[in-house]
Amino acid sequence: MSTNAATDAQLSELIERELGSIIELRHDLHAHPELMYQERRTSGVVARELAATGLACKTGLAGGTGVLGHLPATGDAQGPSVALRADMDALPIEERTGKPYASTSPGVMHACGHDGHTAMLVGAARVLGKLENRPNPVTFVFQPAEEGGAGADKMCDDGALRGEGAGGLGTPVGRIFGQHGWPDFELGTVGSRPGPLLAATDEFDAVITGQQAHAAYPHQGVDPVVAACAIVTALQTVASRNVGPLDSCVVTVGQISAGAAHNIIPSSASIGGTIRTLTPETRELAVGRVKAIIEQVAGAHGCSAEIVHREGYPVTSNDEGETARFFGVADAALGRERVARVEHPTMGGEDFSYYGRHVPACFAVLGVRAPGAASWPRLHQPEYDFNDDAIALGVEMLCRMALSEG
Asked: What is the structure's pLDDT at 1?
């Protein structure tokens, strides 16, 4: 699964030559963040960069801002494409990094490193386009709206993986690889695991309706605040009492609101939260129990409940064969000591999961934490900034996965 010595040398030389401009591109993207499905400037920059590299390019996917690029193999045979994916959207967070290239858009920033992901994939396109030996066709997938908008699902619906004539470019995609900057991992390291890596992400909202009354005369009303509080407490039993102790489930209520005055029992209270699971069976169980608890606890308090459940991203589950490929490529290139076998899945979510419903997929993590750092900003924090020192390795891994044969 490794490349030959001549290709290794050329790969290293090309990455080194392109690194400075890739970092400049990353800083430009960071300074101009765009929320999901608004990535017009970003997708324009990506399309311009791909065209300058000489790639076939297709724009306007997934509602308008998705971009595809394609490179044929250097030989006569054009088998299934290897797809490489990056996400482009930012988050509604006010930046507090203090960097000279900080966001110029108030209340919007790249707090999850998508600027780094996009710049690295552009860098991989530049490098792969200049290699003398490229055994596989490569499709470059730049998607919008990973942060809650399911942009990957729309890219798949639009045919991004199906090849020329079916919505995509070049030959149909046979496998796909993606990676994410990871503050838990030190610079110079990568990691993954077969099977579930990230959780399914469902959401729920509920309105608990009682009877408004004066706060001094609670017996004259039906208090939805007390019912909502009891529901929040009872929901903790889904993970602790309904799901097996060796399985994984999180039920978190992140929103609760009610009332307009200290001396009024309101007519209604609202709660909202998320359900995170790692298997279809546990997902179905947890969603059912959340609905039942909300309805029945509300009823026990004399209230009624209206519940809305929104199915979120599927579990990001890595194909065993493609994950074995990743480990073989990474071990050979970096040495086993720099490649982690991730022991447990994380309960975060990723819409990379949708690609895995169509083709064998592997999602990996790329270390961004400075060695020896006592702490490092986490994803979705206002102090987070993708680490430029991780870019060379990220480009290398993208290229090596594209070049891997077999």
From this structure: 52
Q: What's the CATH class of domain 200-310?
A: alpha beta
Reported pTM: 0.94
Q: Is 190 helix (H, G, I), strand (E, B) or coil?
A: strand
Q: What is the dihedral of CA 364, 368, 369, 375, to 10 degrees?
A: -90
Amino acid at 233: T
- Residue entry with tokens 């790969």: 11
Q: Does domain 5-197+315-403 have CATH number 3.40.50.1220?
A: no
Which of the 8 DSSP states describes residue 187? Answer: T
Per-residue pLDDT, 161: 98
Burial of 260-279, coded b for 16+ CB within 10 Å and e otherwise, reads: eeeeebbbbbebbbbbbbbb
Q: What is the DSSP code string of 197-239?
A: EE-EEEEEEEEEE-B-EETT-GGGSB-HHHHHHHHHHHHHHII
* Spatial separation of the C-alpha atoms in residues 3 and 219, rounded to whole Å: 76
Place of tokens 């001094």: 216
- The one-letter amino acid at 1: M
Cα 349 to Cα 39, 146, 199, 203, 257: the distances in Å are 21, 10, 5, 12, 26
Mean pLDDT of 3-12: 83
Are 337 and 346 in contact by the 8 Å Cβ rule? The answer is: no
Q: What is the DSSP string of 320-353?
A: HHHHHHHHHHHHHHH-GGGEEE--S-BS---GGG
Domains of the chain, residue spans: 5-197+315-403, 200-310
284 three-class SS: helix
